[in-house]
Amino acid sequence: MTTSSASATMSRFRLFFLVAAVYDLALGLAFFFLYQPLFEWLGMALPPHVSYIHLPAIFVFVQGLGYWFVWADPLGNLGIVRVGIVYKAGYSALAAYYLLTD
């Protein structure tokens, strides 16, 4: 791989994680602070306790923070990349399962 193609690949890698970071940070904050209007907009009933919303919201926010670290130093944070891949794959598989079975 040439230096320019490696640089272009790293730029795309960093852009991907910047977008993932901003998305997860915003989503986590939105569901932490604005869960009532979001649940109304989605047509969903609120769970019996706010902790059922706050705990996953904080988890998503922290995941976004991890992606921000990857954006800042991709090669120094490859462990976070691996955890992020497992997290997103697990979430996607579970969401697909419930979409197909419910």
Task: Report what the structure shows.
The protein has about 100 residues and is mainly α. The protein is built from 4 helices and no strands. It has helices spanning about 5-35, 35-40, 50-70, 80-100. The longest helix has about 30 residues, at about 5-35.
Helix content: over 70%
The chain-level mean pLDDT equals: 94
Biggest β-sheet strands, sense, barrel:
none
Using only CA atoms, what is the Rg? Answer: 17 Å
**Shape summary:** elongated
The count of DSSP E runs of length 2 or more, i.e. the number of strands, is 0
Task: Pick out the low-confidence regions.
Answer: none
Cα separation of the termini: 46 Å
Structure class: mainly alpha
Q: Helical element count?
A: 4
Helix-strand string: HHHH
Strand content: under 5%
Chain-wise SSE layout:
Layout: H1 3-33, H2 35-42, H3 51-72, H4 78-101
Helix pairs in contact: 1-3, 3-4
Key terms:
102 residues, mainly alpha, 4 helices, 83% helix
Quick overview of this protein structure:
The chain is an all-alpha fold and 102 residues long.
